[in-house]
Specification:
15 strands, globular, 10-stranded antiparallel beta sheet, HIT family, subunit A, about 350 residues, homodimer, alpha+beta
């Protein structure tokens, strides 16, 4: 079945139906047959680009072998009864960040170059016809949906603006309309003033636990100075440093963490958006109440999360598979589920 | 920290911050100390009501010992810098559906009575001041967020309308405005005509894989005749029968399934809404792309899902922990993650 989009009649949900994806390998640990490892380059689709050092590749960009959306599709809408199937184009690439299978993100010395490639590929994909938005994301750990261990990120070029982005954009616009300022810039000033949710900061970026964190240990990372577009970013060394700092803290505080890293960048040329990164550790799983309502329940306040991350306490029993908390409220165990 | 709600400044996200929840027991398998088992009644908060048979309780309703929201709270908004903390009332109850620890839903013979109690408690909770909506949900299986094995459901009385419900309501209203009919009634007619997504049907209810299923094997169950409110439902025996039929199919097709059952009922007295149940098996986990974009990716088309469920094939390798699909596209394995 060719991948296509479906819109729910009774809600705002958009779904990409893509059963090709089900065929992809799911072999998280082994490097033997890893398609991303050095020597196995013929196991990826033809390379889009690479970065070399000393005549060896250190970064490769390839099409995703099991794409969610494909390009050069029919670009039509098929009606089926009261429904529509949208055969729209998309792009799906993988950035292989290192030739070394087991590296954790903060062990990849050239990660500033990786970030630069993120920006480059986002700019390039946005130039394609029918691509309205690019979403870059990185899954680390089985519980965060990583199907392969080898360090990599993915970019999807989308034919429609994603609802999370349009929702944020409308909030940015409304806030600027009301206050004359960027909501995120104000948030950064507030977090610098309040301090308790700040996790890390350098001359260019700040990382903090958002006031309305949806997930245990959720972290946002953003430029201190207003900038709508990630792909206009230049301070990649500085960004690499703070990202490494934050990931070190995650790995120190949470045993065997799984987390998603997602870049939110402006969906248009207007100045309202403030690009930012969302880091979502996967500890407590959303369950019936969240899926049913759209509410989130967070059982670790952002203030506590920030404190634990900053303090560098090796909270060794906080793992990404939960277990119970003791009656004396020791924060030593993680939380399996919310509901 | 008293549970309270936080609204994100840059999005529509509402979060309940409730660190009391982190203390709840998470002991999925054992019945020794199960607070819901017969003989351990003193381990629950004071009972709200019970249903007896032969002088023994078969159903108990108790307050949740680790509530997401509490009643009789300050009911105020506290401003903190640019943010607000909403100390709003809520209600959180547990319906213990059976005295037997290990029963699967379709083994609970009196489940029609359980459904009747759902409706009763929903009506009662809605009468309370400050309660704007009641959400009833049931988590089964560890991956669906069930912290206890003993068969139970939960009801939360909310001080705000949940975003998923308001989103559905606006779609119902818009559809009726445009077509003069209920969107769900039209959907039911379409599914009866198309057949391929229908999973089960009786004289009062239908169960089908929604056209825009967000998740592998997502199922919706609804009354054939228009009814906005679950708690006005009367056909509990008929509802029990189709629910059992569907759950049998889930357990036949998916090994060790985990799934959420959620009731969506009208948020107001208007006639537009059509109450329905969403059943969400937890196979592929949403990952970076979904969390980042708000899109869903479904790697099992609803048509295929319905076929597998209906055909009663013991697809023994479909488990709730994914593994890879073979190159020859055998549908025998489940899917761990989407991205």
């Amino acid at each position: 079945m060719e991948p296509h989009l479906r819109k729910d009649i009774i809600s705002s949900n958009w779904v990409i139906v893509s059963d090709e994806r089900a065929s992809r390998p799911n072999d998280y640990t082994t490097s033997n047959k890893c398609p991303f490892c050095r020597g196995n380059e013929e196991n990826t689709p033809p390379e889009i680009m690479r970065v070399e050092k000393n005549n060896r590749w250190i970064i490769r960009v390839v099409p995703n072998k099991y794409p969610a959306l494909v390009y050069n599709t029919k670009n039509i809408i098929e009606t089926e009864g009261i429904y529509q199937k949208y055969y729209y184009s998309g792009v799906h690439e993988v950035i292989i960040e290192s030739d070394e299978h087991n590296k954790i993100i903060y062990e990849i010395e050239h990660f500033d170059k990786v970030l630069e490639i993120f920006a480059l590929r986002m700019r390039e994909i946005l130039k394609k016809d029918n691509v309205k938005y690019v979403m870059l994301f990185r899954n680390y750990g089985v519980n965060a949906g990583a199907s392969l261990r080898h360090p990599h990120s993915q970019i999807i070029g989308l034919p429609l603006l994603p609802v999370r982005i349009t929702d944020e954009m409308s909030h940015f616009k409304r806030y600027r309309s009301k206050h004359g300022r960027c909501a995120f810039c104000d948030m950064i000033e507030e977090e610098k003033r309040y301090k308790k949710r700040v996790i890390s900061k350098n001359k260019d970026f700040i990382a903090f636990a958002p006031f309305a964190s949806r997930f245990n240990f959720e972290i946002w990372l953003a430029p201190l100075r207003h900038n709508p577009h990630f792909y206009l970013e230049k301070n990649f060394k500085s960004l690499k440093n703070i990202l490494f700092d934050v990931c070190h803290m995650i790995h120190n505080t949470i045993k065997n963490p799984s987390y998603n890293i997602i870049i939110h960048t402006s969906p248009c040329s207007a100045n309202d958006f403030h690009w930012h990164i969302e880091i979502l550790p996967k500890i407590a799983m959303p369950a019936g109440f969240e899926w049913g309502s759209g509410f989130y329940i967070n059982t670790v306040s952002p203030e506590e999360a920030a404190f634990l991350l900053r303090s560098g306490k090796k909270a060794s029993k906080i793992s990404d598979v939960g277990c119970q908390k003791t009656e004396n409220r020791k924060r030593s165990n993680s939380l399996k589920s919310v509901f």
